[in-house]
Amino acid sequence: MSLLEEIESGATPDRLRRTAAAEQTSIEQLRAKIIAGSAVIPWARGNELAQPCAIGEGLKVKVNANIGTSNDLCRLEREMDKLRACLDAGADAVMDLSTGGDLRAIRTAIRAACPVSLGSVPIYEVLSDLIREKRSPREMTAAAMLAAIRLHAEDGVDFMTVHCGVTRRTVEILRNDRRLTGVVSRGGSALANWIAATGQENPYYEEFDELLAICREYDITLSLGDGLRPGCLADAGDHAQMEELYTLGELVLRCREAGVQVMVEGPGHVPLQDVEAQVRMQKVACHNAPFYVLGPLVTDIAPGYDHIVGAIGGALAARAGADFLCYLTPAEHLRLPDTADAHEGVIASRIAAHAADIARGLPNARDWDDAISKARKARDWETQLDLAIDPQSARRRRSQGLPADTSVCSMCSELCALKGEGGL
Ligand code: SF4
What pTM was computed for the model? Predict the structure, then answer.
């Protein structure tokens, strides 16, 4: 039985018990969410997760950090450093998006060192193999695509992004509805080009039952990828994006029938005023499945600062119902992130997630804010710095401008409004 089926049967598997404890919720409350499909526990059978989590309705908003090599920057130790940086910064989940080098060796090393839920994108395995053999991505085969799913499952990932919603129909729509930036998802682009070149249907859509059988066997949570997510504000909410979304909604129901937990990935780039509407539309179209958003980026003008742009969109999206934020780093659109970028990205997304937790009315979500505010009012610097979301950064900045009177800071010095009777 899969975890979902066990939970539905009334049993209390250890994975449910431990995740409920980690979420500080009752087993029965979490059970109800998992059965309804409004939350998932991405935790594959046989894995030992020291820090499990659940993702979905009524739970704290979670943050995912992407790591992984590319063909140009391919050093395992670099990715292991990034993994540690992401975990130290508080990532709830990590995805290995490696496309360069020995992907299996990299994935296995990351799995062994990763105490949180680990995700992957199996089609990268297929593409990477073809590139190494100097063959075209258009030579992908259905057998290789499904074999990659099984390989990643065997290697112990907990969740997988699979771009099942890029179909012959959506490719036809794309042809007639020209976008400013086309298809910006790596997996989505490879599949769209393959469909256009071969005229065949996406194997991940056509062979969805076989895909589900593998996911059920290994207890993988499916993350239905948004292969046609908009890559700029101009393309947000277009016909192809919406067509894919409704296809994913149909597949959500098939996942649940097959005993496979499922979440759905969302846009990309969305104007600020449309974020809330897009999240609500996704929740309706996808039967309240947990929503995993990539940003969204609310403007296209800020390369170098896209972790901030993504956090603005992420906070709004999570307030409207998104449950899982994929981080963006300052390196987005520019290069493969380094360790410092990964740290900045996780912190920015955690700020967005926490702000949304408060807005979503999660019990006790504001306690942290109140505690730091009390310390600030008392000018209890040690407590304030300890409670900061990034204590190292806060300490470094304070120490770089320490005034003679260390009971205040160098912003206002002797005019400190909090000193003496300050603030009444
Ligand atoms: S000096 Fe100014 S900024 Fe610093 S703690 Fe006092 S009021 Fe706040």
Answer: 0.97
